[in-house]
């Protein structure tokens, strides 16, 4: 008999049909990070799917087997589901897709698991009526994810001086180096890869605080887009395309 792991916390990131009656699930767990498993008979057991195998719901799962693709054993609820509404649903799907696309399988993700839980809790508080509501929780999560992946340089560190950035200076993001100072005349236009030292210091502070200041949302979005692009490659995010199709008159 295949060994069964102890029950552990999990969220379902993605599911797809497998054979006539089963599902393949992508889970996020603290101990194994992203892990794939087969939920045997789940497509046939409609009640089980409706009650437990739903996204954004905290679970306790047992996993059988030693291979990369495990078998899902008993599943228990670990609390009330995070009921996301309106546009917040698509923000949750976006976060799930990022995790599936960017996380290597089988690597522990204790900190990221906690960040994901916090994101869902924040999204569940929103009524989902506007895209602007999503900006602060998503920008925080993107930066946290990038930091955990090693894809974000230290925000308050200047790679040129090997010291802290200066609030009054301007810095350019270089992919292999980090943030380096920019020296130019005052009339030159700021490039998309350039950030003020004040913004970088503010972003570093915001990641450790409770609130994400509205003034930092624009530079945070510009920074995360720059950092995520090489990791995601040319294949578009399905969740972003779906959001645009449903809310055609809203920017995201």
Description of the structure:
By secondary structure, the chain is an alpha+beta fold. The chain has helices at 46-51, 87-102, 110-124, 132-149, 197-207, 217-232, 238-246; strands spanning 8-18, 22-29, 33-39, 59-64, 69-77, 157-158, 163-164, 170-174, 178-181, 194-196. It has a five-stranded mixed beta barrel. Strands 9-8-10 form a three-stranded antiparallel sheet. Helix 2 runs antiparallel to helix 3 (110-124), helix 2 (87-102) packs antiparallel against helix 7 (238-246) and helix 3 (110-124) runs antiparallel to helix 4. It is elongated. The mean pLDDT is 90.
SSE topology:
Layout: E1 8-18, E2 22-29, E3 33-39, H1 46-51, E4 59-64, E5 69-77, H2 87-102, H3 110-124, H4 132-149, E6 157-158, E7 163-164, E8 170-174, E9 178-181, E10 194-196, H5 197-207, H6 217-232, H7 238-246
Parallel strand pairs: 3-5
Antiparallel strand pairs: 1-2, 1-4, 2-3, 4-5, 6-7, 8-9, 8-10
Helix pairs in contact: 2-3, 2-4, 2-7, 3-4, 4-6
Low-confidence runs = none
Strand order of the largest sheet: 1-2-3-5-4
Can you tell me the CATH superfamily of the largest domain? Answer: Recombination protein O, C-terminal domain
Global Rg = 20 Å
Along the chain, the helix and strand elements come as: EEEHEEHHHEEEEEHHH
Number of helices: 7
Structural class: alpha+beta
User: According to CATH, what is the topology of the largest domain?
Assistant: de novo design (two linked rop proteins)
Domain module tally: 2
| Number of beta strands | 10
Oligomer: single chain
Assign an overall shape: elongated
Function: Involved in DNA repair and RecF pathway recombination.
Pfam families: RecO_C, RecO_N
Family: Belongs to the RecO family.
Keywords: DNA damage, DNA recombination, DNA repair
């Amino acid at each position: 008999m295949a060994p069964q792991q102890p029950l552990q916390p999990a969220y379902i990131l993605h599911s797809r049909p497998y054979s006539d009656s089963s599902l393949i699930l992508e889970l996020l767990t603290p101990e194994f990070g992203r892990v794939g498993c087969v939920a045997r008979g789940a497509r046939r057991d409609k009640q089980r799917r409706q009650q437990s195998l739903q996204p954004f719901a905290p679970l306790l799962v047992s996993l059988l087997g030693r291979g990369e693709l495990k078998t899902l054993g008993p599943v228990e609820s670990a609390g009330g589901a995070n009921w996301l509404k309106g546009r917040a649903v698509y923000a949750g799907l976006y976060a799930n897709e990022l995790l599936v696309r960017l996380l290597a399988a089988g690597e522990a993700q204790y900190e990221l698991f906690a960040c994901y839980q916090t994101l869902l809790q924040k999204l569940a508080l929103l009524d989902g009526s506007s895209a602007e509501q999503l900006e602060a929780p998503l920008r925080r999560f993107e930066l946290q994810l990038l930091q955990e992946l090693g894809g974000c340089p230290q925000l308050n560190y200047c790679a040129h001086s090997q010291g802290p950035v200066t609030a009054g200076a301007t810095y350019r993001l270089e992919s292999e180096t980090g943030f380096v100072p920019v020296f130019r005349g005052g009339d030159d236009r700021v490039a998309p890869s350039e950030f003020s030292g004040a913004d970088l210091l503010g972003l570093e502070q915001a990641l450790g605080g409770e609130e994400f200041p509205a003034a930092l949302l624009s530079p945070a979005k510009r920074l995360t887009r720059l950092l995520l692009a090489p990791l995601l490659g040319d294949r578009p995010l399905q969740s972003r395309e779906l959001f645009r199709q449903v809310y055609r008159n809203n920017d995201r």
